[in-house]
């Protein structure tokens, strides 16, 4: 018996809905699309912003690092701070904050103000994800939860495939301030849509530090957190440097790297929905399959990726596998802690975001101090450890 099952009266989630609210699911998906686009857009604007505000590209990179770290901290803190506040009101407030934050970025007179606005973006991202990650159980019937979770996380893939490239294009054509202004306008549209379609989302109980710690005593949640940390850390340690890997290891011309990365993102979207469909049947088996696929894809670059076609195929396989990570592990957390979905989800979101930052940082150190091949070995080894952790939960009925 898990900890969540032992203490239902303290962390019980509201009753499941008697009908599925797909319009609300779609609007939450628009929110996740916006969040990821806002978090990652500066990647495509580093040089432009750095030049305009007289800072180096390395310093401009703080526009990406700061919100990721802040989001990791905000994910568990925001639900604790707001207590039993209606989650509908919380989501509306966070989307309003996102609207103001991006407007602040667009109007920033100097880099310090711009970074300050990115702190607000991080708070909005972490707080919104902490609630939205497990929101499917509040909006649809139990049978539709895996599919609704896949739809919500589809916003992540859409942001990588369409949002960030389109935002970068707008920035290149009209200026980086217009790109951030566009994000602010989209956030306002999302705010209005959330106001129109979200039902009242009563919090059954405020999340306290004790409740969060209780989740770590739940074996299923603990394995999910460990697997998330390892998979996301390993992925971003390697994927951050996938462009030089494609060029130097696979011999692919720089002109084709962009289209291949678009292919990676498209494969990720496909993987997200394939995983969502499969997870309705066997959660443990499918999450283990995802981890094993990532274990193979990254190190195989060093063998089969030595030619262009091999590198391209492995990149697509990698994208398909990683596309299922978010929906797979979030579904795992829902299954492992059905009585404490929001608490478990906030921990999961925190670990996910922090692992992004630490993975990219570690990968950079390895590339600078050792070799480019080292990050692919690290990514594969991390995925292997995640697969082993997932395998140990094979007898846990909650996540089978």
Automatic annotation (TrEMBL):
Superkingdom assignment: Bacteria
Domain Major facilitator superfamily (MFS) profile span(s) in chain numbering: 24-398
Pfam families: MFS_1
A GO molecular-function descriptor: transmembrane transporter activity
Bilayer topology annotation: Multi-pass membrane protein
Alphabetized UniProt keyword annotations: Cell membrane, Membrane, Transmembrane, Transmembrane helix
Localisation per UniProt entry: Cell membrane
Listed transmembrane segments: 21-38, 58-82, 89-108, 120-141, 148-170, 176-198, 219-241, 261-280, 287-309, 315-334, 346-366, 372-393
GO annotation, cellular component aspect: plasma membrane
Stored InterPro entries: MFS, MFS_dom, MFS_Efflux_Transporters, MFS_trans_sf
Entry-linked PANTHER family: CHLORAMPHENICOL EFFLUX PUMP RV0191, PURINE EFFLUX PUMP PBUE
The protein's name in its UniProt record: MFS transporter
């Amino acid at each position: 018996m898990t900890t969540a099952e032992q203490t239902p009266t303290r962390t019980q989630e509201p009753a499941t809905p008697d009908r599925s609210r797909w319009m609300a699911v779609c609007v939450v998906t628009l929110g996740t699309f916006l969040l990821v686009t806002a978090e990652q857009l500066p990647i495509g604007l580093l040089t432009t912003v750095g030049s305009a505000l007289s800072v180096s590209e390395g310093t401009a990179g703080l526009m990406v690092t700061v919100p990721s770290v802040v989001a990791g901290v905000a994910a568990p803190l925001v639900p604790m701070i707001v207590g039993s506040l209606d989650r509908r009101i919380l989501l509306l407030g966070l989307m309003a904050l996102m609207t103001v934050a991006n407007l602040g970025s667009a109007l920033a007179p100097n880099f310090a103000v711009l970074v300050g606005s990115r702190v607000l973006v991080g708070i909005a991202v972490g707080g919104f994800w902490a609630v939205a990650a497990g929101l499917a159980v509040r909006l649809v019937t139990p049978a539709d939860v895996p599919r609704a979770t896949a739809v919500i996380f589809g916003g992540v893939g859409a942001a990588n495939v369409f949002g960030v490239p389109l935002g970068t294009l707008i920035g290149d054509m009209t200026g980086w301030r217009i790109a951030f202004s566009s994000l602010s306008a989209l956030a306002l549209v999302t705010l209005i849509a959330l106001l129109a379609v979200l039902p009242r989302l009563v919090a059954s109980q405020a999340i306290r530090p004790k409740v969060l710690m209780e989740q770590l005593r739940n074996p299923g949640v603990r394995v999910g957190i460990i697997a998330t940390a390892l998979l996301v850390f390993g992925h971003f340690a390697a994927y951050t440097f996938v462009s030089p890997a494609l060029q130097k290891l696979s011999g692919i011309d720089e002109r084709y790297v962009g289209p291949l990365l678009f292919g990676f993102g498209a494969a990720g979207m496909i993987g997200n929905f394939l995983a969502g469909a499969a997870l309705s049947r066997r959660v443990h088996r499918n999450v283990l399959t995802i981890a094993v696929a990532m274990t193979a894809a990254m190190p195989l670059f060093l063998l089969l990726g030595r030619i262009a076609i091999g590198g391209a195929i492995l990149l697509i396989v990698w994208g398909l596998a990683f596309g299922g990570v978010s929906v797979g592990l979030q579904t795992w957390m829902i299954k492992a802690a059905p009585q404490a979905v929001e608490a478990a989800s906030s921990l999961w979101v925190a670990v996910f975001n922090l692992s992004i930052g630490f993975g990219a940082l570690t990968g950079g150190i390895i590339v600078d101090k050792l070799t480019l091949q080292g990050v692919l070995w690290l990514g594969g080894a991390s995925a292997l450890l995640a697969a082993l952790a997932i395998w140990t939960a094979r007898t846990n009925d909650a996540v089978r």
